Amino acid sequence: MAINIKRPNGTEDVLPKDIHKWHTVEKIARETAESFGFSEIRVPTFENTDLFLRSVGETTDVVQKEMYTVMAKETKFTLRPEGTAGTIRAMLQNGLLNEALPQRVFYILSCFRHERPQAGRLREFHQFGLEMAGSQSPAADAEVISLAKKILDRLEVKNIELYINSIGCPSCRAKYHEALRSFFEARKDELCETCQERLAKNPMRILDCKSPICQEIGKNAPLIIDYLCEECSGHFEKLKKYLTNLGIDYKVNPKIVRGLDYYTKTVFEFVTTEIGAQGTVCGGGRYDGLIEQLGGQHVPALGFGMGIERLLLVMDKQNCAYLSPKKCDIYFATMGDAALEKAMEFAGQLREYGFYAEYDLMGRGLKAQMKYANKIGAAFTMVLGDNELEEKKARLKDMESGEEKEILLNDQFISSFDAAYFDKMMGSLEDQELLGGQNNTEVNK
Ligand code: ATP
Ligand code: MG
User: Which residues on neighbouring strands pair with residue 76, listed in sequence order?
Assistant: First the structure.
């Protein structure tokens, strides 16, 4: 019967053959964040809609066009379109901000946005993201940016540029808004309908509009960087100095304003031109007013979100290395019931030691079993039949070299197998390039 229910548009299935790619990114991102003092947090997939209205902002594309909202009984809930709002809500609700600052958390989560699906733009996508709360120092901005850069470097992603900008604080932004308003007022009739509304409420959002006409008009708009107050421009200068000291290349891009309302001062993006139009792999910045806006004290904060699907598009394109997928260590090819029972026993012992062992569950003949062992890429095979059981020894075959070794089927089985396995893996390790040069190699075990 043909399957007539397909996955929703803009969603993806990650199949077992690709899962090692996700594990690679998740492992490197996790390890790197932990090495900077961040701990993992897990928050709900949906939140009260008001949370996003108050943080992401009512005049943003995300809130106006992209949220999945349901009315459940009397309450409006929204599938999270990003990770920051829920994470800050959780930090506030659980008193994390009363503990030693800075508080540093990271997350790997799915986000939902009703966008037009295309390469690198999905309706359900995943982010690795993090938030640091408590520090207003530009050293914290440099720290967070260098963390993102470190992840990309360890994954060996190339040709990715870092753009930074400062979008100031509410006081410099008030002057800037005025300048923008008078600039766009002159061509108000040409703006899209949404932007005509934005003109009064939040003219900076016009710069972020995806409509080609609004983008064209916005090209000559005044730049925020020319309106920064002393405090904001000093902060930005310090950040640039720290990045230079850290050896991190960047370009100041005064056009970056970011799509969410909560940003202040620093904003940044890591962008590549290698995966088409959706080239922003990571975006983030500072949001000093957000925690207060959500009912907390004034606690400056910052963070970023890295789109995992986009990152994998780049990594695939650049043939980046991934951790090896888990492969079968040993396959027992069995003939007869007694041999099957023996295989079950040995496989059980091997699994105790963390090996991946398999035997026939399909009732296949010997030849078909060997074909299957080849197909799953088993490192070793061992044929077990009446003869082997009687003589209490069997031949362990290295499937790559074809070498065979006799192994006793007694209580020395594990140690003899372990020794053979160790020799084989030491050999293959020498040929293998290690991801990032740190202790993150997993040798199928
Ligand atoms: P864009 O300008 O591409 O729409 P954005 O500014 O809306 O991005 P953010 O809200 O900053 O994106 O999200 C952080 C990261 O999440 C982006 O840099 C991107 O890598 C990823 N991302 C955002 N929207 C999507 C999407 N619809 N599909 C896949 N990844 C996405
Ligand atoms: Mg977007």
Answer: 71
